[in-house]
Design a protein that fits this description.
The complex is a heterotrimer. Chain A is mostly helical. Helices cover 74% and strands 2% of the residues of chain A. Chain A is globular and about 55 Å long. Chain C has a two-stranded antiparallel sheet with strand order 1-2. Classes of the chains: A mainly alpha, B alpha/beta, C mainly alpha.
C-alpha cells in the first residue's frame, strides 16, 4: 500500500485524482471494508450481516474506548503500557463492587469505575511513570515495568474477587426488535453509550483546547513544548482521560460478557491492534480502527467458526505491521 | 596541492535525486559529483537537505527518483550494508560510537572479510577466523595509534569524550577500507585543537591512502581552506558546484547561504544537530 | 492467625527436584531471550510460541505420524527455527516496540491454533497418549532412558526420585547451552550482534547485513525455546495450550531480568532464585481462610509483578548485568 515511487504531480485529471485518492491508505481501507460488507451481504444476506454488525459495534466500542487512551499515552509519554488492559479489568470490578456488592444502580457503578480508574492512572503516573521519566528510563525498561504492573493489578483483583467468573446486575435476557433485528437490551445500551461517548471524545479532541493540546503533544512532544504548552498539565489530563475511558470500556465489556481477572489482558491485544492500525498517537485513528476491528471480528463468524474470531484482531495486527507499520490512518514519517 | 592525488576521474555521480516525506521534498532533484582523490565539501543552510542526501546516498533512505552511480555502478535503492561493502562508508552527525563495546571491538567490528562473522566458519575454519582476527587487531591498533587512541583501546567507547568519539568513528570507518568517506559534520561539537587534528587526518588520508572524502560542514573557514571542491545545496537542490574560490563569489550562493549564515556560523552549526 | 513453616517441605527432596526441573526449563528458554534481548537488542515476546511449536510438533510427530521420539526432536527444533525465520523476515524490520507487540500477537495466534485445531492438537484436551492406543505415549522413549538412569543412580541413592533423571538432563542442557552461547558471544559473529544491539544503523554503515544476524539470533532462540518446550512436555506428561500463555514468556523475562541482561551465567542463577522464591511460597503453611488457593496464586503473581517493577526502578541491570552494558537505556 506504499505510495508509488514515481508518482509525479500529475495534471488534475479525473483519473489522476482517483489514483491519488487510492494512494491514501484510509480510502483503500474504506473500500476494502465496503467490499467485505457487500460480499458478506451477497453470501449471507443483509440480516445476518446487520445482526453480527451490531455485535461488532458493541465490541468495537470497547476496543475503541480502550485504544484511544492507550494511543495517547503511547504517543505522549512513549510508554507502551501493557497494564492498560488491567485498567479495564480494574474498572469492571469497581463497577461490580458498586453494582452487585453494594446493590446500587449500574449507572452509579459506571461513574465510580471511571473515577476510580482515572485516579488509578493518575496515582501510577505520580509514583511510577514520572519518576521513571526523570530517570530517563529506556523503552524496554518501561515495557517490563508495565508488565510487572499488569501482574500486580491482576493479583490484587484476584486476591479480592478470586478467579470465579462474575456478572454485573444487568438484564441479559430481554431483547428489542428493531427493523427485524433482535438486539439484546444491554447490548443496545452498550452500543449507544459507546457511540455517543466516542463521538463526544472526537468532538472534545477536535474542538477543545485541551484536546488540541493532547493531539499536538502526541504528535510531537518537543515541538509542543517549544510552542509553550504546559506539558505537565496535559499529561495529567491524559491519564485522567485514558483511565476514565479504560474504566468505561471495562464496564461495557463486563456488561456484555462477564468479569474475570484476566479479561483485561485478553482485551489488550486487540486494543493494541487498534492502536497500531490507527497509527500510534493518533486518537481519531484509534477510534476508527477499534470499531473496524470489532466489526471485522464479529463478521468473521459468518465465514469461520466463532472460536477462531479472537484471531482476527491478531491477524489484522500482524498484517498491518507487515504492510504498513505506521498504521492505516497514520501518516508516513521519516525513520 | 589541490590536484596532487586527484586524477580527474569521477567516483560518485549523483543525478536528479528526489526524496519526499509526505508532501515535502527534502531533496528535490539534486545533481552533483565527487572526483576521485578529492576532498569535497557539501555546504548549505539548515534544512537544505544535506543529511537527507547523505542518507539517500548511503541507502538509509530509499530515494524516490534519480540515479546514484558509484565506481560507475548504480547503487540507488541498495541496502546500506551493501553500499558500505562497495567502499562508500559514512559517519553520522551525532556520533554512533557503540558505547557498551570496548574501543578495540568498535574498530575490529568494521574490518572486512572476517570469515568468523558467519557461524558456519566458526566451526569449520576456526583457524582462519583466528588468523584474520589477529590481523585485524594489529591493523586496528595501528590506526588507533595514528589517532592517539591506543591507550583507550580496552575502555568502553561510552566513556570517551565527544571529540575522542569523533576520532574513533573516523578511525572505525577507515577499518572498513573505504574508497569514499562520507563525513556528516565531522567538526561539530569538538574543540578547535581536536578539529585541526581531524582536518590533518583528512588531508593525510587522501594523500597516503588515496581515500576520497565528501563532508558536510558549516564552518566556512574550514570549507575554504581544506576542500578541493565545494557543492552548495539549498532547498533540496544543488545550486552551485566548483572550486572554493569560485563558489565563494557565486551570486546564488551568497544569496542562499552566505547571506544567512556568514554572520553566525557557530549558531548554525550547533542548531544543525 | 498462625503462620507456620512446614519443615517437611524443606527436606522434601522430591519437591526441590520438581522446582529444579522448572527452573532449568525456564533457564533454557530465557537463554534464548538473553541472546535476543541482551545481546541482539530484539525484544522477543513470543518465546512461548516457540516452546509450543517444539512441544506440539514433537507430540504430533510421535503420536500421529509414528515418528520415533528421538527423530521427532530434531524435526521439532527445525520446525520452530523455520517458524522463527518466517515470523522474523517481516517482523524484524520493525521498530523494537512494534516487534514486541507483533511477536506477542504471533504467540497468541499459535496458542489459539493449538486450542482450536482439535483434530491435530487435541484442543483443550491436550496431547498425551494416542487415543486409539493408550500405551503409545510420547513420553515412552524418555521413560525408558529415565529408568536406565535411575537404575544406575540407585546404586548410590536408595530410591531416586522419578524426576531426578529429567533434572540431570535439563541442567546438563543448561550448562552446554550456556557454554556454547558464551563461546559464540566472544567470536566476530557475537561482536556483530552486540553492535546491532548498540546501534543497528552504525552496524549497517559498516557493512553488516543486520537483518540476517537478527534472523539467526531469533532462530537460535527459537531452537532453545523448542528444547524448553520438550522438557516442559516431558515434565507435565501432557502438551496443553494453557501451558503456553504469554505469561510463560513474561516469567522467562522475569528470570532474565533478575539474572541480568547481557549475562549468560546470570540466567541460570536468576531462574533458580526466581523459582525457588516463587515455589517457596508453598513452604509457608498459610491458613485457609483467608489464604485460599487462588489467593496464594495471586500472591505469587504479585511477587513477580513487584519483582519486575522493583528491578526496573532500582536495579535494571539485574544481579549480574554490567552497568556499562545496560541495554535498556535505548
Amino acid at each position: 500500500m506504499e505510495a508509488g515511487p514515481l508518482a509525479e504531480p500529475a495534471p488534475p485529471a479525473i483519473g489522476a485524482r482517483l489514483k491519488e485518492s487510492l494512494e491514501r491508505p484510509w480510502v483503500v481501507g474504506v473500500l476494502v471494508i465496503v467490499a467485505i460488507f457487500l460480499a458478506l451481504v451477497i453470501t449471507n444476506g443483509l440480516h445476518a450481516v446487520a445482526q453480527t454488525g451490531i455485535n461488532g459495534l458493541s465490541l468495537g466500542s470497547i476496543y475503541a474506548l480502550g485504544a484511544v487512551g492507550l494511543t495517547l499515552v503511547y504517543g505522549i509519554l512513549k510508554l507502551v503500557n501493557f497494564a492498560h488492559g488491567d485498567f479495564l479489568t480494574f474498572g469492571a470490578y469497581m463497577a461490580y463492587l458498586v453494582n452487585v456488592t453494594w446493590g446500587m444502580p449500574l449507572v452509579v457503578g459506571v461513574f465510580w469505575a471511571m473515577v476510580a480508574t482515572a485516579i488509578l492512572g493518575l496515582l501510577l503516573e505520580r509514583v511510577l511513570w514520572r519518576p521513571m521519566r526523570n530517570k530517563h528510563a529506556g523503552l524496554l525498561q518501561l515495557i517490563l515495568m508495565s508488565i510487572g504492573l499488569a501482574f500486580l493489578l491482576r493479583a490484587i483483583i484476584q486476591w479480592f474477587w478470586s478467579t470465579d467468573i462474575r456478572v454485573l446486575d444487568v438484564n441479559s435476557t430481554s431483547t428489542v426488535d428493531f427493523l427485524g433485528l433482535r438486539i439484546g437490551q444491554t447490548q443496545l445500551i452498550v452500543v449507544i453509550v459507546g457511540v455517543v461517548v466516542l463521538v463526544g471524545i472526537g468532538l472534545m479532541l477536535r474542538l477543545t483546547l485541551l484536546g488540541k493540546r493532547m493531539r499536538a503533544l502526541s504528535d510531537d512532544l518537543e515541538l509542543a513544548e517549544t510552542a509553550g504548552i504546559d506539558t505537565g498539565r496535559v499529561i495529567t489530563y491524559t491519564w485522567i482521560f485514558a483511565g476514565a475511558l479504560a474504566g468505561l470500556a471495562g464496564v461495557l465489556a463486563a456488561a456484555t460478557t462477564n468479569l474475570k481477572p484476566e479479561m483485561g489482558f485478553e482485551l489488550l491485544l486487540p486494543i493494541f491492534a487498534a492502536v497500531i492500525l490507527g497509527g500510534i498517537g493518533d486518537a481519531f485513528g484509534a477510534l476508527a480502527a477499534g470499531m473496524v476491528i470489532g466489526v471485522m471480528t464479529e463478521w468473521s463468524t459468518l465465514v469461520i467458526d466463532a472460536r477462531w474470531k479472537t484471531a482476527v484482531g491478531f491477524l489484522v495486527l500482524i498484517i498491518v505491521l507487515i504492510l504498513r507499520p505506521q498504521g492505516i490512518f497514520g501518516k508516513a514519517k521519516a525513520i | 596541492m589541490n590536484d596532487a592525488a586527484g586524477n580527474g576521474r569521477t567516483l560518485l555521480e549523483v543525478e536528479d535525486v528526489v526524496k519526499r516525506f509526505g508532501g515535502i521534498r527534502a531533496v528535490n532533484g539534486a545533481t552533483m559529483s565527487v572526483g576521485e582523490g578529492r576532498i569535497t565539501a557539501l555546504i548549505g543552510p539548515n534544512g537544505a537537505g544535506k543529511t537527507t542526501l547523505f542518507n539517500v546516498l548511503t541507502g538509509f533512505y530509499k530515494g524516490d527518483r534519480g540515479s546514484v552511480s558509484f565506481h560507475g555502478e548504480e547503487i540507488l535503492g541498495e541496502h546500506p550494508y551493501a553500499i558500505a561493502r562497495k567502499g562508500m562508508v559514512r559517519t553520522f552527525q551525532i556520533t554512533k560510537a557503540l558505547a557498551a563495546m570496548p574501543v578495540i571491538d568498535n574498530m575490529m567490528l568494521a574490518a572486512r572479510d572476517q570469515p568468523g562473522e558467519h557461524i558456519r566458519n566458526l566451526f569449520i575454519h576456526p583457524r582462519a577466523v583466528r588468523q584474520r582476527e589477529n590481523q585485524v587487531r594489529k591493523q586496528a591498533m595501528e590506526l588507533l595509534g595514528i589517532f592517539n587512541l591506543s591507550d583507550l583501546a580496552e575502555d568502553y567507547a561510552g566513556t570517551l569524550s565527544g571529540g575522542q568519539r569523533k576520532l574513533l568513528e573516523l578511525a572505525r570507518a577507515l577499518m572498513a577500507e573505504p574508497t569514499l568517506l562520507l563525513l556528516d559534520e565531522p567538526m561539530a561539537g569538538i574543540n578547535p585543537t581536536l578539529g585541526r587534528r581531524l582536518l590533518d587526518h583528512m588531508q593525510g588520508l587522501r594523500r597516503e591512502m588515496g581515500v576520497s572524502i565528501l563532508f558536510i560542514e558549516h564552518d566556512m573557514e574550514v570549507v575554504m581552506n581544506h576542500s578541493d571542491r565545494v557543492v552548495v545545496m539549498a532547498e533540496g537542490r544543488v545550486i552551485a558546484e566548483g572550486e572554493p574560490h569560485e563558489v565563494r563569489r557565486d551570486k546564488r550562493v551568497i544569496d542562499a547561504y552566505l547571506g544567512e549564515v556568514a554572520g553566525e556560523p557557530a549558531a548554525a552549526g550547533s542548531s544543525g544537530e | 492467625m498462625l503462620v507456620a513453616v512446614t519443615f517437611d517441605a524443606i527436606t522434601n527432596a522430591s519437591f526441590w527436584i520438581s522446582v529444579g526441573v522448572i527452573a532449568g526449563t525456564y533457564a533454557i528458554v530465557a537463554l534464548g531471550l538473553q541472546l535476543n534481548t541482551g545481546f541482539t537488542g530484539i525484544v522477543n515476546f513470543g518465546q512461548a510460541a516457540f516452546m509450543a511449536i517444539g512441544a506440539y510438533t514433537m507430540a504430533i510427530l510421535v503420536l500421529k505420524a509414528g515418528f520415533s521420539f528421538w527423530l521427532s526432536l530434531p524435526c521439532a527444533v527445525l520446525a520452530a527455527m523455520i517458524f522463527g525465520v518466517i515470523v522474523g523476515l517481516p517482523a524484524l524490520r520493525l521498530r523494537a516496540d512494534y516487534f514486541a507487540i507483533a511477536t506477542i500477537a504471533m504467540a497468541e495466534v499459535v496458542r489459539l491454533f493449538a486450542q482450536n485445531a482439535r483434530g491435530l492438537t487435541g484442543g483443550n484436551q491436550g496431547l498425551f497418549c494416542d487415543v486409539n492406543d493408550p500405551s503409545n505415549c510420547y513420553t515412552n522413549a524418555w521413560r525408558d532412558v529415565s529408568d536406565h538412569i535411575n537404575n544406575f543412580v540407585s546404586n548410590f541413592w536408595g530410591d531416586p526420585d522419578a524426576l531426578f533423571p529429567l533434572l540431570i538432563v535439563i541442567w546438563v542442557t543448561v550448562a552446554v547451552a550456556t557454554f556454547l552461547l558464551r563461546r559464540l558471544q566472544g567470536t566476530p559473529w557475537g561482536r556483530v550482534l552486540r553492535a546491532i544491539r548498540e546501534d543497528e544503523d552504525a552496524a549497517q554503515a559498516l557493512g553488516k547485513n543486520t537483518l540476517l544476524y537478527k534472523l539467526q539470533s531469533l532462530a537460535i532462540s527459537a531452537c532453545l525455546g523448542a528444547i524448553g518446550g520438550f522438557f516442559l512436555a516431558l515434565n507435565l506428561a501432557t502438551v496443553h495450550p494453557l501451558d503456553f500463555e504469554p505469561l510463560v514468556t513474561f516469567f522467562a523475562f522475569s528470570v532474565l531480568i533478575l539474572g541480568g541482561l547481557g549475562s549468560y551465567r546470570g540466567v541460570a542463577v536468576g531462574s533458580v532464585l526466581f523459582w525457588f522464591v516463587l515455589e517457596g511460597t508453598r513452604f509457608i503453611d498459610l491458613p485457609d481462610p483467608p489464604f485460599t488457593e487462588t489467593r496464594i496464586a495471586a500472591i505469587r503473581l504479585a511477587i513477580t509483578g513487584l519483582l519486575l517493577i522493583g528491578l526496573m526502578a532500582f536495579r535494571p541491570q539485574g544481579l549480574f548485568g554490567k552497568r556499562e552494558e545496560m541495554v535498556l537505556g535505548e
